[in-house]
Amino acid sequence: MTSMTVNERPVHFDMDPQTPLLWALRDAANLTGTKYGCGVGDCGACMVLVDGEALRSCLVTLGEAEGRFITTIEGLSADRSHPVQQALVAEQAIQCGFCTPGIAMAAAALIGRNPEPTEAEIMAAIPNLCRCGVYPRLVRAVQRAGRVARRRERISAAPAPGIDPADAARAVPALGGGSGTSADD
Ligand code: FES
Ligand code: FES
C-alpha cells in the first residue's frame, strides 16, 4: 500500500511500488487528464506537480511518491480558473490538446516561482513536446498567465465544461471503489 495526497485527497494505492505514478493516476485513480505520450521521459505529456515541482509522472514510481503531495490537471483548479488555464484558452494555445495538461502543469510550476518569465525561461522550464506546434502562442500564454497571477490583467472566465468532472468520473468504473485505489473523504 502506497499512500500520498492527490489533489488534496488522501489516496492509497494497492499496487506494486515500482508502478509508474502515471499508470496509478490514470488506470487506478481515473485521473486521465494526465496523458501518456512516450512513457520514457521525452514528451512531458505526463507532467504533474509533486510537492509543487513539475515532474514527468512516467519516471516517478509509486514508491518515490509515497507521502508526497501530487497535483494533476484535474486538481489545478476546480473550475479552470487557474491563470495558466485562462491564458492558454485566451491565447488559443491549444490545438488537439493532447500535450496541454502537461504543459499547463509545467507552466503552473513556473508561474508559481517566477510570474514574469522571459521567453528563454519559458522554453527552458517547459520542454514539453507539442506535435501541433503551439510554441509561439504558448510563450504568449505563459507570459499572460504571469500578468494575471500578478493581478496586472484579468481574463474572462473560460466557458463552462461540457460535462461536470464528477459526472465524467462516475461514468467510469475505476473510481467506483474497485481494485487498485481507495480514497478517504
Ligand atoms: S509520457 Fe512521460 S515524458 Fe512522455
Ligand atoms: S496541441 Fe496538439 S500536441 Fe500540443
From TrEMBL:
PROSITE patterns: 2FE2S_FER_1 (PS00197), 2FE2S_FER_2 (PS51085). One of its GO terms (molecular function) is 2 iron, 2 sulfur cluster binding. It comes from Alteraurantiacibacter buctensis. Keywords: 2Fe-2S, Iron, Iron-sulfur, Metal-binding, Oxidoreductase. Residues 1-76 form the 2Fe-2S ferredoxin-type domain. The lineage of its organism: Bacteria, Pseudomonadati, Pseudomonadota, Alphaproteobacteria, Sphingomonadales. Residues 175-185 have a biased composition (Gly residues). This is 2Fe-2S iron-sulfur cluster binding domain-containing protein. It comes from the Bacteria. Residues 156-171 have a biased composition (Low complexity). The keyword Metal-binding applies.
